[in-house]
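Lab notebook, bench 4. We co-purified these components, and the gel suggests they stay together. Before we commit to crystallization screens, I want a quick structural picture of the whole thing.
Request: model the full complex, all chains together.
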Amino acid sequence: MTLLAPLAAGAKFFVTALIATVIVASAHAQIATPDLSEATLEQLGNIEVYSASKHLQPAGDAPSSVTVITIEEIQQHGYRTLADILQTVRGFFVTYDRTYTNIGVRGFARPGDFNTRILLLVDGHRLNNNIYDEAMTGTEFPVDIDLIQRVEIIRGPVSLLYGSNAFFAVVNIITRQSHDVKGLELSADAGSFNTYQGRISYGRDFHKLGLLLSGTFYGSRGHNRLFYPEFNVASSNNGIASHVDDDQVGSAVATISHGDFRLQGVYGTREKGIPTASYGTLFNNAGTRTTDSHEYVDLRYQHSFADSWDLLVRIFYDRYTYRGIYMYASALDPAQISPNVDMGDGKWWGTEVQVSKTVLERNRITAGSEYRDNLRQDQSNYNLNPFSLLLDGRQKSFVGAAYVQDELTITHGLSLNAGLRYDYYNATQASTDARIAFIYRPWSETAFKMMYGEAFRVPNVYEKYYSIPPNLPNPGLSPERIRTTELVWEQGFRNHLWLSASAFYNRINGLITQEPFAGDSLIFRNKQKIGSAGLEFEVRGQLSRGLEGSASYSVQKTEDELSHEILSNSPRNLVKLGLTQPLFNRKMFASLNAQYRSRMQPLVGNSVSPVSVVNLTVLTHALGKHLDLSGSVYNLLDRKYFDPAAGETVQQQIQQDGRGFRLKMTWRLGDR
Amino acid sequence: MATGGPLVAVKYLRPKLVCSFCLGMVLLPCGGLRLSHAQSTSEYQVKAAYLYNFAKFVEWPAREFPTPEAPIRLCILNDRSFETELSPIVKGKTVAGRPVSVISVQDGEQSRSCHILFINSSQSARARRILEVLRPASVLTVGESPKFVEEGGIINFILQDDHVQFQVNHKAANGAGLHISSRLLSVAKLVIE
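Here is the predicted assembly.
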């Protein structure tokens, strides 16, 4: 509590100072809006406007079902992490085991893997690392959420353009540029569980050169006490994990752009205390923790030539490291601790070229190639007391790929999008994938899409070579493959309303999944045929200057086609709701979002009860948009709920956070 | 522990502090509102008014109008909601004796008969191809995407600090046989010669 006394005093001071400043500032000149039809060119240029929400305009021409989340929605809803954003997206669900965050899509969230079936991109740069294939979406995501301009979620298999991992969806993060920040921007927030975050960003355009620099620190002490009934014995503190849920993040982004060139450097590191005693570690020991770091530089050149040529060239270098320290009782003397160190060390570089050109008026041809060289894909594991090396796996590999796609306008309103891709892997089987989509727009606000696509995911080195008990290696794993057929109907209505309905059928061959083997061991294997069918509905609307929002419902069934068993971690129904009410001439916004997830069966044990969570945020723009203040309440109804665990914990279900708060302020010290 | 009550709901932030903060936020914009009468306007209302103004400051070749009273055809590509913003602004208005009619189009072919064509940002992926189809025609193309003028569009809206501004590709206008008045050029943020 003592920590909060200065905060309380500071907040009071701010509020008083702000009210005074706003009253003084607003007493000064404000331009009266002229009758627009009589306004002169000069007058029009002086009218302050609010920008319309672009998400209402359907991406009707895309050969996929697409969702876009903008910076305005992120601010208005008080989203804290990328996972918070994805939680609200139709067909997506999020689970957290208090170490890593997992994203499920359309009924799929395999226990024991690390988000390997969605491809995460930052400005087109691949983020899934080269050891675990992991797309990090919780606090471990290396870019501050405040630096996101928009998030594009493309559903369905998109391997055609992106290769491995673009299995269920691609999530592309578009970051803010120098001209979006303009000057100095400072942000600070404080929340429940002793969570604090600070950010400093600076953006400026010097003639043709654009510069953006940003750095963030985040620290959370986490829960003081977490109770796990599975450990409720005197020898493990009666099941209470005390002060072992901490979370620290440091991240930085630098972007320099000059004409068609853009150079971006990203660095992010996160250290998380593990309170769940996973992998049989000692309960309530603060020494058990993981650190994940990802850094990269990415140079991009993008140019549109005369004669309808477009060129994109990218070259990048990435480094990813993971270090986990796990505290065990020594086998020789149980009173002593024998720490185990588990490490992953990845390094890779790569290059991409993409060209597109319109030919014969009706065809837009896109062709490209990429090459990725995994310089290092090492995994190691050793005990410290006494020292013994248990794993020293060193791997290298490369992948080369080429693809071609044609967008053909057949007649008025009817177009065809078809393509083919070939991926060569030196460490596993090559893959050939095709996609074909018909898009029919009989009227301007109506689109029908009929799509078939194939995608693949190659087994990663963790799945193939990690051999620390209970895991057994399986170097013979093959790529898993998916075929998706999807029908989409998108309909706009005059009255600012947009509706989308979608039906999909997924067929997966050789799904890589972790299974018990020979008693206590676990092994990754290619499982035969999985079938999944589902329906999704979404409506988005905006009343003129008033309430705007979206609602979606997804229903699906995913089963093993041989045994007809429903797959684990596969909720049948998902409901999402998001509402924003602008107040006081759009100077303030009250936003509510809610998610429902139906009952699901974890890997082992009782089913996980249905979950419904409501979050509320109030955001104010003050001082002519120089200051943003927001207050959020997460899990407003204080619902007690659980997420399924994977095989690494004794707990079959992990309890999630109850009600939590966050207060946030952002200052902009530039010309607005 | 038998009741299994949640032990995790530790609340660090005092409700009182939260309340006073929220109250402060509610009061802030009230103060601003009462004193200023500021009207905020939608981006697209302003863009609609600009389109009407462009009609006043651009001259088309005489052959583009069959009769002296023939209307100026202001076309909107696949955007019904923008049409509803535009229609009231041009309703009953004339430019040099010509009425202005708002027309909805779906592709480049249909747009050849337009005098002004507005392509919104959600259609920007198609903009390039449509501009190619329209290149020889005397159509004032208006867009709102970053590369619009580079791709051969004539006028492009940009949003600068919550104000709608525009850029003009004078070269493309000349190529299309359109004469843009110096008044319009002087207000533009960027003119490509």
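The longest strand of chain A covers residues 337-359. Worth comparing against the SEC data before the next meeting. Residues 4-27 of chain A form the longest helix (24 residues).
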